[in-house]
Specification:
This protein is α/β, with parallel strands linked by helices. 35% of the residues lie in helices and 16% in strands. The strands form 3 sheets. Strands 12-11-10-9-8-7-14-13 form an 8-stranded parallel sheet. A 4-stranded antiparallel sheet has the order 1-4-3-2, with helices on both faces. A two-stranded antiparallel sheet has the order 5-6.
Length: 449
């Protein structure tokens, strides 16, 4: 497992590839031998120089011409290159991750702080490729293995989005889902404990479903620091309540926000459909519970943070590369354990193990997660990165910023949205779907009368 930053692709190469792309976008033009061979040699040289893989492991031609698109913040799309590594001979999938263009330096001459330090250190005039190495999973299902899991050295385009199955329901790739937050905590950062009593929480569930929620996400522990909530107390807050919701709403998808396998097991026994592991697999047995009960699983990036801690001076060479590495590793591990592949989601983990700039970058590069083929869940609702971006300290006043981030995420292809404001989110998602052409207008009379 590792990251390699390739600095051997200069602007001249990219311009040449773009010229070819602009002159002729046909399949044959994109596969022109000289261009493919040229870039193959550069990629091989970089990998061998980094001592990550053997020169003989990449014998096929790497075609990045098809991957170049005229997008404002990026130069290259990802492609997958399979090959054995030096260390163990196992076949790995190497994902060549798109790298955004160089950001301008501050005009006031001040040095960048926090996660901006890597921008100042980037070589001006070069485009970087980040190559993320992932262990190749073994396919245990019937029929041929999915393309992303085959032991192959073929170059593939970004994986197509897959259908998502949760509970009794299957959703096609164009279908966006709203997950309503039901926090059963006395110290919730937003509602301050409004749903601690069973009656209040059940009423909140009913309101969310009426407003258009597809999923209700029930949690018994505040994400941030606070009073200690042990396993028994979390079970008391969550498990029995899941059973009540299932009895009253047999068709709704029930998610449980927990990192503990014991809580996940009890919730599944009461009828939960999805394990929302917001702390990045800190309890590895939670995935085993999801596999045992046929439940879905959310694999979240936290950068290795301890549950209920806030980030402090955290830094990444490339935050999206780290998100991809950790999320894909967890997703593939879950699939290998038997979690149904059509029930696994990945989540960039906004604010978790990240500062505001990290979360903003993760949002604008969300399409890189979408390109993996795994459905992407985002939890944006009224979070600190929204507040800091807009200078709004009070979570109750962050709705507009949340909806703006929601629209961007929807345009980039996220599928599931964990939110406090169901109706408003549903309206934003429907509007974006209509703009994309995935949803017809509710009415189309203007100019036709």
């Amino acid at each position: 497992m590792g990251l390699i930053t390739v600095r051997g692709v200069d602007r001249g190469d990219v311009c040449a590839f773009k010229k070819l792309w602009g002159l002729d976008r046909s399949r044959h033009a994109r596969q022109r031998q000289p261009v493919r061979e040229q870039l193959r040699l550069k990629l091989v040289d970089a990998l061998v120089a980094s001592r990550e893989i053997d020169a003989d492991s990449v014998k096929h031609l790497v075609d990045l011409v098809h991957a170049i698109a005229p997008q404002p913040h990026s130069e290259l799309h990802g492609v997958n290159v399979g090959g054995p590594n030096r260390r163990g001979g196992e076949v790995e999938r190497l994902t060549v991750v798109r790298r955004r263009r160089q950001l301008p330096q501050p005009s006031d001459g001040k040095k960048c702080d926090g996660d901006q330090h890597q921008h100042a250190n980037d070589d001006i005039g070069h485009n970087h490729l980040t190559i993320v190495a992932h262990p190749m999973p073994r396919w245990s299902g019937g029929g041929p293995a999915p393309a992303r899991m085959r032991d192959t050295k073929d170059v593939t385009e970004p994986s197509p989005p897959r259908a998502l199955t949760l509970g009794r329901h299957t959703f096609e790739p164009h279908h966006t889902l709203v997950m309503a937050i039901i926090n059963r905590t006395p110290d919730s950062f937003y509602d301050g404990g409004a749903n601690m009593a069973d009656a209040d929480a059940l009423e909140a569930v009913a309101r969310a479903i009426d407003a258009g929620a597809d999923i209700v996400d029930i949690g018994g522990v505040k994400a941030g620091p606070g009073d200690v909530v042990d396993e028994l107390e979390e079970l008391r807050r969550v498990a029995g309540f899941v059973g009540q919701v299932r009895a009253l709403h047999p068709d709704v998808i029930i998610s449980v926000d927990t990192w503990r396998a014991t809580v996940g097991r009890a919730a599944c026994q009461e009828g939960a459909d999805l394990m929302n592991d917001a702390w990045g697999g800190v309890d590895p047995q939670l995935a085993e519970v999801a596999a045992e009960f046929g439940a879905g699983l959310v694999c979240t990036h936290t950068g290795g943070a301890t549950p209920r801690t806030r980030p402090h001076r955290v830094a990444y060479d490339d935050v999206m590369a780290d998100i991809l590495t950790r999320c894909l590793t967890e997703a593939e591990r879950a699939a290998n354990l038997g979690v149904r592949a059509d029930g696994i989601l990945i989540d960039p983990g906004h604010d978790f193990g990240k500062n505001t700039r990290h979360s903003l970058e993760a949002t604008r590069r969300l399409d890189e997660m979408v390109d993996t083929g795994w459905p992407v869940l985002v939890s944006l609702s009224r979070k600190d990165f929204v507040g800091e971006a807009l200078g709004i300290a009070v979570p109750a006043e962050r709705l507009v910023g949340t909806l703006a981030a929601t629209a961007v995420s929807a345009w980039l292809g996220a599928r599931v949205y964990r939110v406090h404001d169901v109706a408003q989110t549903r309206a934003v998602l429907d509007m974006v779907a209509s703009i994309r052409g995935d949803r017809p207008p509710a009415l189309a009379r203007r100019g036709l009368a």
